[in-house]
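Exercise (ungraded).
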Amino acid sequence: MSAPTPLSVEEDELALLTDLYQLTMTQAYWKEAMDGVATFSLFFRRLPPERRFMLACGQQHAAARLSRLRFGDSALSRLAGTGLFEAGFLDWLANWRFEGDIWTLPEGTPVFANEPLMEVEAPIAQAQLLESLAMNLVQLETVLASKAVRIVMAARGRPVVDFGMRRMHGIDAAVRGVRAYRTAGLAGTSNVLGGLRHNLALNGTMAHSYVLAHDSEREAFRAFARHYPHTTLLVDTHDTLEGVRQVIELMQEEPELTVKAIRLDSGDLGELARGARRLLDDAGHDEVQIVASSGLDEAQIAVLLEEGAPIDAFGVGTQMGVSADAPVIDLSYKLVAYAGEPRVKHSPGKINLPCPKQVYRRRDDQGRYLGDVIALRDERVAAGEPLLRPLVKAGRLVEAEMARADDAPERVADALPRFPADVRRLEAGASDYPVTLSPGLERLQSRA
Amino acid sequence: MSAPTPLSVEEDELALLTDLYQLTMTQAYWKEAMDGVATFSLFFRRLPPERRFMLACGQQHAAARLSRLRFGDSALSRLAGTGLFEAGFLDWLANWRFEGDIWTLPEGTPVFANEPLMEVEAPIAQAQLLESLAMNLVQLETVLASKAVRIVMAARGRPVVDFGMRRMHGIDAAVRGVRAYRTAGLAGTSNVLGGLRHNLALNGTMAHSYVLAHDSEREAFRAFARHYPHTTLLVDTHDTLEGVRQVIELMQEEPELTVKAIRLDSGDLGELARGARRLLDDAGHDEVQIVASSGLDEAQIAVLLEEGAPIDAFGVGTQMGVSADAPVIDLSYKLVAYAGEPRVKHSPGKINLPCPKQVYRRRDDQGRYLGDVIALRDERVAAGEPLLRPLVKAGRLVEAEMARADDAPERVADALPRFPADVRRLEAGASDYPVTLSPGLERLQSRA
């Protein structure tokens, strides 16, 4: 393996990033000439116990990708090499195109159990082949955005910066994760490529190695602050409060140097922040801000702020980078209709909602959300904003809808305060936000 | 965003997948003309509480990638656009090459706290720039392999197949994860691209949607078994044991159809496996195997087998796909020497091991592992196999070492039984496998 295998997946091999059974089932449909229109719903049955809502993210990105899926020559020859597929089927795959419809919730929509994030409607051999990749693409951004929005809520308006690139699960997660973080309302990222690609401000300070490579902390601070006016200096390499004193003395020695902030990265952050704030204020440097990092999550941030820690901004990496307390959602992509008939798996104790659907989010006259109604797509429901929109029609992207993905951070910031406080609590536990079924869906569901 | 942003990272942009401070620190080193040789150690201070060892994985792959890192034109122009970098530095980056050494543990080495997985030695502006990407690359495969090997141990020789692609964190994780699973000893994967790229057998059965799209379970089984002799039929769409009866009747109706296995994907797997086994055996079909999936992890697999569930193979997805109980390791990439001097951060209560190091794994005369000694690289230690090997020398891959990565599954299978049983236990909790410091390192460490 002296030539390392590629880290990337080329456009013409992306269609192979699927579970084998999608391809064997599709070959079976092809042999059986089964081409009825199928509707698949992408949803989760239960919130992770650590979450009161999920922030649906990545569906528009995924829909764009899925609608362009092709089996290129390289993909076809690799499939031929498995010996599992007939020549006629491979020829058919060469011309395979997604020509159906994809409905999605807008990026950044808070979403609850059983509400479709996406519905795909197409001849079954088209809709089936999207399953595995759709789930992978939507899950990543939804899991990361759902964690990040909790960190943002915990920070109560203070900027939060992503430091997680090194902890995330590989390259795609590290890059696309920044998109999810931007949606959730983060203020910046240390991740250069992710930030440049997904339009989030770049942030950076210094590492302990920079201090250690110099003969003294003071020399390291001096050199860095000369190179980078308004920089942030990392003060905890040896002794944190002594580090703060070094910064203060440096500013006294060279008044033309401006230091924007100090960063605390270990120890008792609340106590050290109070001590550092006192030292800085006593020296007349109340303009120097305090940034805290150090394996933080939303619970620790909430405690720090409740205890009045004078921290101005947070850097969060490890826990947010993989959504460590809830790294996965049990997304399902279920057949709900085939050839005009409702189809669902009959599982004891599980709700399985048949047919194409719509979700209505009801508001009161102050704009506060009262609850959601999951309905049949064509059913008339008295009130509420329909959340699912057609993003792909007959295989083509609806450009006006795609453009809306960029507004996701604003929509998240607008939507969150409209929910009952209970939904926004950080503690684990189900919220009582009502999600009900429409009369039409209730009737079909009880019959199933 | 009608043209979706690329899912992949091209070779010439990979150098931008880093934390901003790596680049600003490097610019500072360049301005300060600091070019002393630095040694950085990649290690973790503590095992995750859920792990008794980690299976080091991905380091050789990472070293190959890191040794080729370049700042291409596109990367340089993106950096110029940030306004943070001087033209002279960008010119210097254009010619930046890694010309140092990288030592790594072989892929698939069980590893413990404080043992370096990788050591990088180069002028500081070269070694520093590898940090973020090195950590991201090594963490992914190490986290996934370390979870997967526990599943393999729990299955006690029964084949385990990866069903996790849809749950993994994005595309790179889904593809490279298969490499980690292969190293850990999985028998196959449902993931077509991952399996083809990383040489792991492809496996697939059928989904509930296939059954639901047909008019009856029997018709679905008949069609699929006719298309795919020796296939696996999913029997739990409606009622599991009734599904097994449908399979048996089908085999009686069409004796030329061969069914290799049935798959159980919900309910009480132990009870259903016993019921299914009885039905199959009573019908004279003891050749039909039973495959179980359904949110399994190593604990559930262990319980099923302890209770004697007649399950022949396991499909594992969700929990393994993200290493849900330990999705992250707190890897550090620490400066341990600069310009010939030991350098470490002095943190109260933390061990920080200075200088280039070696790890010796000691065996008794039956080949059983007795414990590890972490030593200075040039120190003579009485006994034990040195684990770290130079994989990159003066910027170039050592081809003979790279070839060894492919043997990782065999080395894992050989090494695991040599550890004390305590290391291989699945329960959470520290093992008492001894990892000690050499006299030379102990002396330096106590002085620091």
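Further reading is listed at the end of the chapter. For now, observe: The first strand of chain A starts at residue 37 and ends at 44. Chain A has two domains: 11-146+326-358+385-436, 147-321.
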